[in-house]
Structure formats: structure tokens, C-alpha cells
Amino acid sequence: MAYDEGLAERIRSRLGDDPDVTERRMFGGIAFLVGGNMAVGVTGDDLMVRVGPDAAGAALARPGARVFDMTGRPMRGWVVVAGTAVAEDDALAAWVAEGCAFARGLPPK
């Protein structure tokens, strides 16, 4: 499956030259890892965000967010955000910051 390279580039621009950030192809798209922990990614036209189990309910209440379920088994602490919901830079920035903050709170891999 192809992924939205434009969205991936917008994420790269947000993350800048942070040496803790790496990229890896995952889930048929691309993932951005912080300290070896996945923070955000792009699958198809959508944004994947790791928010953690405690923040998942609030995240799902935001526009365009839904449960991350690619295999029939929802992934706890993850959401998928419709690409249309992150068309504005401020919306994308908020989701990327949330995913990165959660990943930074985990032990490095």
C-alpha cells in the first residue's frame, strides 16, 4: 500500500533534525520513532499516532480520529487520524507533538 508522501514530508518538517528521531517502513507506510519508540506514522492518507492507553479516549473524541485497527485487533493506545483532519498545520503539529511526547516518556530502545 502506498502512503501519502506529502503528509510524511510535513511530519519530517515538524520533527526537524532531532537526532532521536528515526524513520522506518511499517504497516504499509512509514513510521517516525523517537528513541526507538514509534510516535507517529503515515498509512495510506492517514496519520497514526501513539497516544498511550490513558489518553486514547480523549484522542478518539477529537475530529477525524478513530481506533487503530488494521488486523481486526485494535491497538491499545493508538489512534488513526483522517488525513483531512490534519490538513491544517496546527492540527498536524498538535498530533505530532502528542505522539512524540508519549514516545519520549518511554524507555529508549
From TrEMBL:
<keyword id="KW-0489">Methyltransferase</keyword>
<feature type="domain" description="TfoX N-terminal">
    <location>
        <begin position="19"/>
        <end position="102"/>
    </location>
</feature>
<dbReference type="Pfam" id="PF04993">
    <property type="entry name" value="TfoX_N"/>
</dbReference>
<dbReference type="GO" id="GO:0032259">
    <property type="term" value="P:methylation"/>
</dbReference>
<dbReference type="GO" id="GO:0008168">
    <property type="term" value="F:methyltransferase activity"/>
</dbReference>
<protein>
    <submittedName>
        <fullName>RNA methyltransferase</fullName>
    </submittedName>
</protein>
<dbReference type="InterPro" id="IPR007076">
    <property type="entry name" value="TfoX_N"/>
</dbReference>
<keyword id="KW-0808">Transferase</keyword>
